[in-house]
Design brief:
The structure holds two protein chains of two kinds. By secondary structure, chain A is an all-alpha fold. Chain A has three helices and no strands. Chain B is an all-alpha fold. Chain B contains seven helices and two strands. Chain B has a two-stranded antiparallel ribbon. In chain B, helix 1 crosses helix 4. Chain B starts with 9 loop residues before the first helix and ends in a 10-residue tail after the last helix. Classes of the chains: A mainly alpha, B mainly alpha. At the A-B interface, helix 1, helix 2 and helix 3 of A face helix 1, helix 2, strand 1, strand 2 and helix 4 of B.
């Protein structure tokens, strides 16, 4: 059980992602400064959209769409960083 | 603090991309050389946690919100180079998949929230735990100070980039960015302290690993 501590930690991360609909929708620090100081208009939208603004596309319920985006992103990042770390470690062992 | 495309000029984009590419290269090398068995899943967990936690914007004064950066937590638990790699994963995914932070601004965002935040947090934490002792109290105070300092310094570098790009005059954007992020940094400090408290209570051995 102890060796699988990260499974429990991953569940905690997913639980945190499920809180995302409760997040404040006010502009963040940089957006606020850009609005107040009059340069927010310089911002350009991305040329394409995938899960824009953490809302999973095609789902009516916005809270659900946000939670789904959060879960997808959390799993992608766990996989990406775990995989990258594993790769770097394995490559080191082979060349050592 | 994710900079969208359009806020930075070509020279700033080029310079920050070059520095961040070099930083990621260094991080890949250091992590490959020093990463321990136990630290592989911790890399994944920290990236997942930082992504999830960054979605939780908390309100600060005057209709403004902030979210954690997370670099301080990663730098304290794994070290600054590993934190740069984790933050780069998070910021690249946020830009490519979630359209949060511009594609051309990715270099600047990795520089501010990855490199500046990770290294400043790591050295502030080292300094405070050296002064206050490497006990529970020192760890929590160090975590708070490191987290606050990392947000504050990242916002200052962000302001410098905006000013150099001509988006806003230096004297205007610097105090505005520093002021609001001094508040957001308190949130980062409290959350970092809370997570470190949880790690100390459940897996204190994770704080004894070699930092990368």
């Amino acid at each position: 059980m102890k060796s699988k501590w990260w499974l429990i930690a991953l569940v905690i991360c997913l639980a945190v992602a499920c809180l995302a609909p409760l997040a404040s929708s006010s502009p963040d620090g940089l957006e606020r400064v850009a609005e107040d100081k009059g340069f927010i208009g310089l911002g350009q939208d991305s040329p394409y959209q995938v899960i824009t603004d953490y809302v999973f596309p095609g789902i009516e319920n916005e809270a659900l769409a946000t939670i789904l985006a959060g879960i997808v992103g959390t799993l992608i990042l766990f996989g990406a960083a775990y995989g990258l770390a594993w790769l770097l470690k394995t490559r080191k062992r082979r060349t050592a | 603090m994710h900079i969208p495309d359009g806020f930075l000029n070509v020279a700033t984009v080029a310079a920050t991309c070059a520095v961040s590419a070099g930083g990621i290269g260094g991080a890949v090398k250091m992590v490959g050389r020093k990463l321990g068995e136990k630290q592989v899943p911790l890399m994944g967990i920290l990236a997942a946690f930082i992504f999830a936690a960054q979605m939780l914007n908390f309100p600060v004064a005057g209709g403004t919100s902030g979210h954690v950066i997370g670099a301080a937590l990663a730098a304290i638990l794994l070290g600054p180079w590993a934190a740069v790699l984790i933050m780069s994963c998070v910021l690249i995914a946020q830009s490519l998949i979630f359209q949060d932070g511009g594609l051309l601004a990715l270099g600047a965002n990795i520089f501010n929230m990855g490199i500046v935040a990770s290294f400043s947090a790591y050295y502030i934490y080292r300094l405070v735990t050296w002064l206050a002792g490497a006990n529970r109290r020192g760890t929590l105070i160090g975590g708070f100070a490191a987290a606050w300092g990392s947000v504050f310094l990242a916002s200052i570098f962000c302001a410098i980039e905006l000013a150099l790009s001509g988006s806003s005059p230096f004297g205007v954007v610097l105090p505005a960015m520093a002021g609001v992020h001094a508040l957001i940094g308190i949130g980062e400090g409290l959350i970092t302290g809370a997570v470190l408290g949880l790690v100390l209570a459940t897996r204190a051995d994770l704080l004894q690993l070699q930092r990368i």
